[in-house]
C-alpha cells in the first residue's frame, strides 16, 4: 500500500500563498509515484487549491466540518459543501479542536458519522497529552477516543496518532513507541477494512524516513513542515 503523506496547513497564509504552494506540490507530486499526497488548506483557500491541484495526483482535504447537513448553524460548513468543493478527506478530532475549541468525543463522533455519510474520508486524530502520558493513561485515553469509531464499521477512514505533546513542539516519540502505539490502535480499532494508521507530531524531512520505514506506520500527518513545498515533498520522498 502507498504511504499517505498529508499536509495540515492549519490557519496559515494568504490565498496567493495557498495557490503557489499547491502548484508547487502538484508539480512535485508527479515524480512521487510511491506515495499518496493530500493537502488540507484553510476553508477559504479550498477552491483555489482545488483549481491549482487540477489533475495532479495530490488530493484535497479540509481541516474540519460540522455534523449537520444544512440549517441555522452560523459559521459552520457541512460535509457535502466540502464534497462540492472537491474535498475527498476531512481532518476530525484534531487535538487543537479538542483542546482549544472544546470539541467533545460526542461531537467528534457525530462529525465522523456525517462526514462518512457524505462520502468524505475522515482523518481521525487521537492522542494523549503530556500529563496523560506521565500519568500512564495513554492507552485509556486512546481507547476512549477510539470509541468514536464504534458506529463506523465498514466505513473508509484513516486514523492519525498524534500525541498532543509532540504537536508543534519539535518533540517526537521514540520510533519504537510509535510502533507500539500503532499496534495498540490496530488491535483496538475493530473497523473493517482496517484503517491506515498515520503518525503526526513534529514530522520533518529529517525524521520522516525513520518513521515511514516502519511497516506499522501507513503515513504521516504533517503540520508546520507542510507549509514549505520543498520540505513537504522531501517528507513525501522519504515514504
Ligand atoms: P506539526 O503538527 O507537524 O506542526 O507538529 C501536526 C498536526 O497538528 O497535525
Content-based structural category:
alpha/beta
Regions with little confidence, pLDDT below 50 for 5+ residues: none
Helix content: 25-40%
Please indicate the percent range of residues in DSSP E strands (runs of 2 or more): 15-25%
What's the arrangement of secondary structure elements?
Blueprint (H helix, E strand, L loop, with lengths): L2 E6 L6 H15 L5 E6 L5 H8 L5 E4 L16 H6 L4 E4 L2 H5 L5 H13 L3 E6 L3 H5 L3 H9 L11 E4 L13 H14 L8 E4 L7 H5 L6 E4 L6 H9 L2
Parallel strand pairs: 1-2, 1-8, 2-3, 3-4, 4-5, 5-6, 6-7, 7-8
The protein binds 2-phosphoglycolic acid (PGA).
Give the structure's gist in a few sentences.
Helix content is 37%, strand content 16%.
Please characterize this protein's 3D structure.
The protein is α/β, with parallel strands linked by helices and 239 residues long. It has helices spanning 15-29, 46-53, 79-84, 95-99, 105-117, 130-134, 138-146, 175-188, 208-212, 229-237; strands at 3-8, 35-40, 59-62, 89-92, 121-126, 158-161, 197-200, 219-222. Strands 1-2-3-4-5-6-7-8 form an eight-stranded parallel β-barrel, surrounded by five helices. Helix 1 (15-29) runs parallel beside helix 2, helix 1 runs parallel beside helix 10 and helix 7 (138-146) crosses helix 8. It is globular and about 45 Å long. The termini are close together. The model has no long low-confidence stretch (mean pLDDT 96). Residues 8, 162, 167-168, 200-203, 221-225 line the site of 2-phosphoglycolic acid (PGA).
Amino acid at each position: 500500500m502507498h504511504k499517505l503523506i498529508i499536509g495540515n496547513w492549519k490557519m496559515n497564509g494568504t490565498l496567493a500563498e495557498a495557490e503557489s504552494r499547491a502548484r508547487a506540490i502538484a508539480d512535485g507530486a508527479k515524480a512521487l509515484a510511491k506515495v499518496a499526497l493530500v493537502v488540507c488548506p484553510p476553508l477559504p483557500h479550498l477552491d483555489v487549491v482545488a483549481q491549482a491541484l487540477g489533475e495532479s495526483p495530490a488530493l484535497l482535504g479540509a481541516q474540519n466540518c460540522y455534523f449537520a447537513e444544512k440549517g441555522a448553524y452560523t459559521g459552520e460548513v457541512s460535509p457535502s459543501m466540502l464534497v462540492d468543493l472537491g474535498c475527498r478527506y476531512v481532518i476530525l478530532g484534531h487535538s487543537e479542536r479538542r483542546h482549544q475549541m472544546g470539541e467533545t468525543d460526542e461531537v467528534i463522533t457525530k462529525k465522523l458519522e456525517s462526514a462518512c455519510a457524505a462520502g468524505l474520508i475522515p482523518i481521525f486524530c487521537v492522542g494523549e497529552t503530556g500529563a496523560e502520558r506521565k500519568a500512564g493513561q495513554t492507552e485509556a485515553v486512546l481507547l476512549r477516543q477510539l470509541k468514536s469509531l464504534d458506529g463506523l464499521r465498514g466505513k473508509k477512514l484513516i486514523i492519525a496518532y498524534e500525541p498532543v505533546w509532540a504537536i508543534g513542539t519539535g518533540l517526537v516519540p521514540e520510533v519504537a513507541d510509535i510502533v507500539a502505539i500503532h499496534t495498540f490502535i490496530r488491535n483496538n480499532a475493530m473497523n473493517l477494512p482496517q484503517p491506515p494508521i498515520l503518525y503526526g507530531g513534529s514530522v520533518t524531512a529529517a525524521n520522516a524516513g525513520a518513521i515511514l520505514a516502519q511497516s506499522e506506520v501507513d503515513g504521516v500527518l504533517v503540520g508546520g513542515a507542510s507549509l514549505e513545498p520543498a520540505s513537504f515533498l522531501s517528507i513525501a520522498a522519504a515514504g
